[in-house]
Amino acid sequence: MIAHDPSLVILSITIAILGTFTASVMTSNVALLPRGEGRTRIVMASLTLGSCIWAMNFVGLLALEVPINLTRDPVLLGISAAIAFFGSGVALFMLWPGGMTAGRLPLAIMLLGLSITATSYLGIAAIAGQQLELSWFLALICAVFAMQSGLMLLVFLFLPRGVMLTLTGAIALGLLLAAAHYLAIASIPGLEERLLSIPRSHTGISERHLAWAATIMMYFLCSICLSIFVIAQFREDAG
What we know:
Blueprint (H helix, E strand, L loop, with lengths): L5 H21 L8 H28 L11 H21 L9 H25 L7 H22 L5 H24 L4 H6 L10 H32 L1
Helix pairs in contact: 1-2, 1-6, 1-8, 2-3, 2-4, 2-6, 2-8, 3-4, 4-5, 4-6, 5-6
């Protein structure tokens, strides 16, 4: 299996946990909120969840201990980001304000799971080329695992819970999202040889700097959303 930089792997997992924690805070008791405030919370949850799915995959790619050419297909990188945001947003809005009905929940799970899978494989294709040879058995397992992760994530986000459950659940769900990405990496035999055959870009920016830049952007986004949440809670208590 292709080697990874342990520090960047930890960084990608941290991004996943931070994003799922922020999304979990945004959706806490959202069904009890006025429609306008609830919509704002769902929008912020969609932004943080979509950002963490894409940023975690991006940093996970940078963790590969082989030369990476991020300029090879930037369009695919952009499409992978768009899918992460679109899938997260639509899946969350499908379950709000109507709740997890028998008709909506399976569709939302399928959409989020496929979005997680597509984000991973499109990101890999962006750096390794579109003619990848997949282990279809492992790819199928990856897709099923992503849908199971989507199920657990969506149910948890709309579940009534306290602070400790939110924190522990975010850690577990962040690990699941990260595992889905690294499972996608493992489902592509010969990926290391493929990457080594591609000329390296000469942008002058190291993978580590790019990884930290993505992490800092994720941190600021989550900080802004959490700050808005705290201010809203303070105003509600004061009123």
